[in-house]
Design a protein that fits this description.
By secondary structure, the protein is α/β, with parallel strands linked by helices. Helix content is 29%, strand content 27%.
Length: 379
């Protein structure tokens, strides 16, 4: 005990002790006084040899633990935040995996109608709408309200029926998609008997469809076709039916459609525009005989209004009214040059329409403008 010179009271000496051999400096609570040697007597016994080494080792270990935990003792909030962050890092991937499995089992993929392209599926007519004087929209029910047709973008189906004792098969591209469950829509132009001198009997399948009553069925088969749009400018194109598909990535898609050839174009346009991450630019040149023959005009112009930088639309008519503000006449070089993307590696020109239009108007003019065969595809 030491006497305090000012107050006259006795004070206990400050305990300072260093592990000299360990080279450690900060005393621990309850450590002996620094004035005592390391080997000082405790309980009348002097510690030396191995006991002395053990004491120093214990001192060093305690000091290291104190030094390591000291910052966290000083700031408990920080360690709590660190632990929370570590917990998030560790558990977040597990949470994502859990949610993925949960969503998969909660929302399984919808059942597909066209499971086998070689099998015919009889679908029932549930609605028929008159779009114009010679155009109808037919809606057919799928096997259940949860079913989708299962038609890849760019593919088509075949309708087959016995008409006047003969089997008639025709290809059609639905205007609905696999986003629509429980039904499939077809927009069909009816070629009536006695209207076109070149086809006095009219269209067998289109007239048959027009004669169907609600509840009647017709056979669907598919998918079929040589082209599939994969998304984000990627097309898978088969040179022929049994060949492996060749992938082609493009930035610009030019389209030349005539009459009912608009349906596969609309299918691809919708697929591109609904995906905001798909930056493909579509440019359509749509040829018809008269203004009233333009199929799906309101849908096309609505898409153009909503996507002015991604979709360009231009018409040409064989017989145009006086106030017509678009082109007039058959598809020619000038129309292609002015309203479709120029020939380059990241361009694909799609064509669908009457065979004479493709053979005599589209292909020769594309050749003259420098579009190579790998830059174009005809449905």
């Amino acid at each position: 005990m030491k006497a305090n010179k000012r107050s006259g009271t006795q004070t206990r000496p400050r305990r300072r002790w260093r592990c000299r051999r360990a080279g450690l400096g900060r005393p621990l609570a309850g450590a002996p006084s620094s004035k005592q040697p390391v080997g000082a007597r405790e309980g009348g016994l002097r510690k030396s040899g191995p006991a002395r080494g053990i004491k120093a080792a214990r001192c060093g270990r305690s000091f290291l633990l104190t030094k390591i935990t000291f910052p966290f003792r000083a700031n408990g909030d920080n360690i709590l935040l660190v632990l929370l962050q570590l917990g998030r890092i560790v558990t977040y991937p597990l949470w994502i995996i859990y949610r993925t499995f949960l969503n998969f089992f909660r929302n399984p993929l919808p059942p597909i109608t066209l499971k086998d392209p070689e099998v015919k599926y009889a679908l029932r007519l549930i609605d028929k709408e008159e779009v114009s004087h010679d155009t109808r929209r037919f809606r057919f029910a799928l096997p259940s309200v949860d079913h989708v047709l299962g038609l890849p973008i760019g593919q088509h189906i075949y309708l087959s029926a016995r008409i006047d004792g003969a089997l008639v098969i025709r290809p059609y591209t639905p205007v609905s998609s696999d986003d629509d469950k429980g039904f499939v829509d077809l927009v069909v132009k009816i070629y009536f008997k006695g209207v076109n001198p070149k086809f006095p009997e009219g269209g067998k399948m289109s007239q048959y469809l027009d004669s169907l009553k609600i509840g009647d069925t017709i056979d669907f088969r598919g998918p079929s076709g040589l082209l599939v749009y994969k998304g984000k400018g990627q097309f898978a194109i088969r040179p022929e039916k049994k060949a492996e598909p060749v992938l082609k990535n493009v930035k610009y898609v030019g389209m030349i459609a005539g009459g009912t050839g608009i349906t596969p174009m609309l299918q691809i346009i919708r697929a591109v525009m609904k995906n905001k991450d798909d930056h493909t630019i579509c440019q359509l040149l749509f040829a018809n005989q008269t203004e009233k023959d333009i199929l799906l005009r309101s849908e096309l112009e609505e898409i153009q209004i909503q996507n002015p930088s991604r979709f360009k639309l231009w018409y040409t008519l064989d017989r145009a009214p006086e106030s017509w503000e678009y082109s007039q006449g058959f598809v020619n070089q000038e129309m292609i040059r002015d309203h479709l993307p120029p020939p380059q590696d990241d361009v694909l020109i799609l064509m669908c329409g009457p065979p004479p239009m493709i053979q005599y108007a589209c292909i020769p003019n594309l050749d003259k403008l420098g579009y190579t065969k790998d830059m174009r595809f005809s449905f």
